[in-house]
Fold:
Amino acid sequence: MNTAAPSFATRAEVDGWTIDALDDGHFRLDGGAMWGVVPANIWRALTPPAEDNTIRMSLRPFLARRGDRVVVIEGGVGARWSDKLRGIYHIEGGGHLAASLARLGVARDDVTDVVLSHCHWDHVGALVVDGPNGPEPLCPRARHHAPAVEIERCLAPDHVRRGSYRPEDLLPLQERGLLVALETRPGGPEHPGEAVAEPVPGIRVHVLGGHSEGVSAILVGDGEAPGPDRAAVFWSDVVPTTHHVQPPYIMAYDIDVIRSYEVRGRWLERAAERGWIGLFYHDPDVALARLERDGRRFRAVPLPA
Ligand SMILES: [Zn+2]
Structure:
């Protein structure tokens, strides 16, 4: 394994936004589950597993700043974990988000908005912290925006989804009136089957579905305008790592594989065509990468430091 310090970028500027990679530690999930039907001899070369077949993944929210808006995209895994679950998921770190913001000169109170792609525990867990009087919001002044269906599933998970959602990750936000369901409009002919919202001017959330019912791609900047560095796309679990850039490389966790295939194909194509910068949540090595066409395949090209 390469243990040298990463030589890849952790900051990008698009359309007046400054975007920085944050850090909430790492965890490990079963490699086979992360790679679905992809044959083991292919994925083991791309993401080498440990002896227990797990692969290491980052928990990497992003900070986007423009004017008076200080926006956290995605919510880490947090520190509210039993030793047993820490062990099962090999959670290293977790609960780093405040320190990670502080390194960029941002206090918890400074955050104006949190935008969430979906509400699985590895994407929202850090937004509630243990305070002196019980659980409290990490960002007490921020409006927390999430797809409506994700809020519903998280607060009342059914049997199938119980392993993916924890109501206690959102309840303290809801009780304080900080949780806002996205107000969406239909995506139109260019975004069939998608619902689109703009919770912060210049940040659009495209509710796609596939991985979960409401999983979204979050577009920062003006994605429609031509030219480089106009937009960045937060891929969330639609494209969890830079190795998952071929449309059929779909996780076994996805609840609607056909939908995943369809939206991934469309969005990978669009990102490559328009030169969007990709923001990767689970890639342990690369935070920011552009997609390029490579014949009929795609290639993720990390942004140099
Ligand atoms: Zn995830």
